[in-house]
Amino acid sequence: MANEEDTGKTQAELESHVWKLAEKIQFALYTARDGNTIAQWPLTANVDREANAIYFLVDDNGTRYDHLTQSPDVSLGFADHPKYVVVHGAAAISNDRAKIKELWSPFAKAWWDSADDPAIRLLTVIPSRAEYWDSGNSLVASAVMLTAAVTGTKPAVGEHAKVAL
Question: What is the rounded CA–CA span in Å between residue 45 and residue 55?
Fold first, then answer.
């Protein structure tokens, strides 16, 4: 695990990097405990560093987010090879119509007719910690992996850090 001494970055720079990666990648694999099982599905993230929150517009299908009353701890996996970030936090579902309208976008129109659709809910994740892996350019990362495979050495996979948020 890298920390600020290993990466040469301050805590603030590490946090900033996590937020920037999540915002740039935008698509998250949402992972939660639903009773005795782990459930996952993809969602489009609306990252708001100033609010220390990651928002999602989701559909109120009756039971999909019932697990949050018992287990609000979730993970969000963002991946855009060779950049990855996993965010852990607490999630809550609400019917905050003002925030739903604020987050409305043309992309949301693929799922709902308008921001006034009564089925839309706001899923809010408040991050507590994150971990990222950033190998920079995908062409360079692929070359490093290929070289390691040919030479039998372990690849230098780039920057990696665990970050408290």
Answer: 6
The C-alpha atoms of residue 26 and residue 120 are separated, in whole angstroms, by: 19
**Domain ranges (residues) in the chain:** 4-164
Q: What CA–CA distances, in Å, run from 80 to 25, 50, 73?
A: 6, 23, 24
Residue 36: what pLDDT? 85
100: tokens are 């739903």
The per-residue pLDDT for range 123-156, each reduced to its tens digit, is 999 999 999 999 865 444 444 444 445 555 655 5
Is 162 in contact with 45 (CB distance < 8 Å)? Answer: no
| DSSP type of residue 109 | G
The CATH number of 4-164, from 2.30.110.10, 2.60.120.10, 2.60.40.10, 3.40.910.10, is 2.30.110.10
What are 120's strand-pairing partners?
A: 59
**Contacts of 118 by beta carbon, 8 Å cutoff, 6+ apart:** 60
